[in-house]
Amino acid sequence: MDSIRICGEVPLYGRLKVQGSKNAALPILAATVLIPGVSILHNCPRIEDVHLMCKLLVSVGCCVKWEGNTLIVDASEITEAGGQRPLEKGAGQPGREACRMPAEYVEKMRSSVIFMGAMLGRTGEISLKYPGGCVIGKRPIDLHLMAMEQLGVETAQTEEGVTARVKRLRGGHIRFPIRSVGATENSILAAACAEGTTILEHTALEPEIHALCEFLRSAGAEITGEETGRIRIDGREKLHGCEYSIPTDRIVTGTYLLACMAAGGEILLEGACRKEQQALLGVLERMGAEAEARPEGILCHRNRLLLSPGEVVTEVYPGYPTDLQSPMLAVMAIARGSSGMTETIFENRFRVAEELNRMGAGICVEGRRAYVPGSAALHGEVVRARELRGGAALVVAGLAAQGETIVSGRQFIDRGYEDIVRDLRALGADISYEWEEDNSKGDGQSSV
Ligand code: EPZ
User: Fold this and answer.
1) Total domains in the fold of the chain
2) Of the four listed, 256, 290, 376, 391, which is most buried by Cβ atoms within 10 Å?
3) Spatial separation of the C-alpha atoms in residues 433 and 448, rounded to whole Å
4) 133 lines ligand 1 (CB under 6 A)
């Protein structure tokens, strides 16, 4: 397994342009299926999950081409997955085999469920295996299915997965019991070309929802209200090709702000949006760090000992983001004084504490709360990433640790970070990729 080597206690200095947003790009890529034409996406991150989404697009007949960080998707023709049979709208005739998304991709990435709304909107049918849960939680899709059914979709579930079909999507009034990012996105995608008006209530407020709506509006969709939690969508017969620039990734931005807290120093993150970072910046201010908005992004520095922020609770946006919970644990570990982190979104998102404790963090997890004693002198270790944001947290901890840290499981980190080594190196970190050479040639380690 490829690894990342970090030599800790090297302060970060410099400026960096942050990559495009994974969690904005993925639903927008699914949305291109709704458009019988060419979509041009600028500032698209070249990450594992986007490559997987591109494979899914190609599997249903789309043509996909990269030009640097611009992704060009031509969805003029949609065919059955892997086949040649063109799928025209309303193909969801009973008795016909629904378009089956390739299982090998769906199982690897949970957000593939986001294809449901778009494929139903374009072809009236989709069949997909349940997207894999992951180490952070069960990741059910009951709210997605509830919403589809309220738009006239017939769903049939088996042990393996779900088939959904509809002759013609019709507008409906859907009220979500909890704010779900994915279920909100799927509903917007299904309603964009439905007959009549759809009202969605109690929707997720994450910035990625706004980005999806902006993209769809540029393709001719009629959508309003996404920043209020009550969305109105007036279905359109057809959408058209468009051009859109993916916004900066707010979670990668937050990860690098926390990297600066861990290593010390002063960095400017270009393209970072202060409004999207309010919750994190509020916690950092409590810790004694300083961050200020600049025309080009966010400048932050940490030149003295960090103080404990006290209690931090993850919440839906605009609250403290669950995706920055693990990287914050690493920083709490070195802050002076004890802290507490409560995870309210996912049921199993403290797995990384085990590995952080091998570096000396002393974290104690009980149910949904982690107690962090603080004032730890972290030491370098060989540790293992098991999922995306936990892996990023181990890199952040390595920046603060005495000595060398090796983080294996780089492939998890590559799912969301275009090139975490390139980025942190550009800010002065002593960090590189490592890979195990074939043992038959000795166990030399090479680093790039
Ligand atoms: C999105 O996941 C993000 N992924 C996640 O980022 C992020 O952590 C999460 O939103 C919360 O902000 C993408 O955007 C690709 P949810 P999603 O539906 O849509 C429960 C990362 O690291 N729920 O808002 O799956 C669910 O179990 C990833 O980039 C149901 O019960 O999140 C969870 O407890 C990790 N039934 C809560 O809602 C459903 O049908 C929030 O999930 C759907 C969700």
Assistant:
1) 2
2) 391
3) 6
4) no
